[in-house]
Amino acid sequence: MRSEKTEILIIGAGPAGAVAAAMLRQQGRQVLIVEKEQFPRFSIGESLLPQSMEYIEAAGLLKDVVEAGFQYKNGAAFKCGDKYTEFDFRQKFSEGWGTTYQVQRATFDKVLADGAERAGAEIRYRHEVIAVDVEGDTPHVIVRDPQGEEYRIDAQFMLDASGFGRILPRLLKLEYPSNFPTRGAIFTHVEDGVAPGGSFDRNKILVTVHPQHDDVWFWTIPFSNGRCSLGVVARTDFLDQYPGTEMERLRAIVGEDAGLTELFKNAKWDTPARQIVGYSANVKSLWGKNYALLGNAGEFLDPVFSSGVTIAFKSASLSTACLQRQFAGESIDWEAEYGIPLREGVNTFRTFVEAWYAGGFQKIIFFEKSSKEVREMISAILAGYAWDKKNPYVAESKRRLTVLEQLCAG
Length: 410
Ligand code: FAD
What we know:
By secondary structure, the chain is of the alpha/beta class. About 35% of the residues lie in helices and about 25% in strands.
């Protein structure tokens, strides 16, 4: 079997892998990405959070993203029957970007990967990692190339950015089940036919709570080309009640909400719907000897606050900062400097996700008499600033949310 060497091997050229690669190239590292698909390829996760812009900028990819012509985004709107509320991310507690984009991921991921390649990373598309070995001093993988031939790559350090492929967690048995119930999503892209000038704000993601089931919700993510991403998220036992094709099931559930039915009355449902289930996952450790897990290859919570890509970028930023010091000869405590700091923000989001499905967070956001200060603190989390410990809703998220929920219910 032929064999090669690289300094850093990255599995997967999605957002985590591409941004990590671009950051490592700034440090002058040799970077090889092995990506099993040919880009552009479809991916879900289309609404970014403003916090993610900081990492795009730090990776030197801001111009590429800005010039790609994506839909501008400045906030999130929530609707449940007649109740409506919106958060403008420019009015938020934390410092930093207040706007971002809603992106077709096929294009977005290619823009980032092309940027990483331009920065000097090598990307091998249609090469799939099929085995890993982390037992030796340094890790190696076995890769299958597009012709079906297998070869070996030895790396000084490996970053698993394989997303839902979860290569290292699966092959090294690092996974343990999420404590969230199994949920799934059915989604499509439509030509939305929404006339400009109405109440629909294309600059915000719209999250609609199902009129009868407060743990079932829909996303409406407008794009810049007159199209929208539209999806429903629910427990799988709820979704399983609906017969037919994915498209028939999605349309049936969307049809139960009067607001979405009206919004999409002129839509062309021209793209087959897809379903993804059981995406929430945990791992025992986010790192090991000479490897780290990035983005969804580590943990994935839930789509409700659009936090996935932001967490993927944060993991790229933290891990590459550790690598810079490790390659400079420092000894790095990966748990203290990567695992714990990454999980801090993930756990803030986790508290909010739990409060969303328990119904408490919905009481909070639809409460009409909230103070401006509290709304700005909540707005900062919704904008992705889940690591800003100056925000009381980060520092003490569980306690604060519980108290606030009681206030809003009373
Ligand atoms: P990915 O984007 O999954 O990239 C991983 C790459 O690894 C892929 O290109 C894959 O082909 C490659 N790969 C896999 N296995 C191998 C292998 N064996 N060899 C080589 N390459 C391999 N996030 C948001 O920020 N906003 C949202 O609005 C949002 N909505 C979501 C809705 C749903 C229903 C779900 C399930 C998730 C959503 N997310 C959202 C989360 C988002 O999809 C992910 O967090 C994000 O894509 C993670 O990026 P990543 O780089 O870790 O992985």
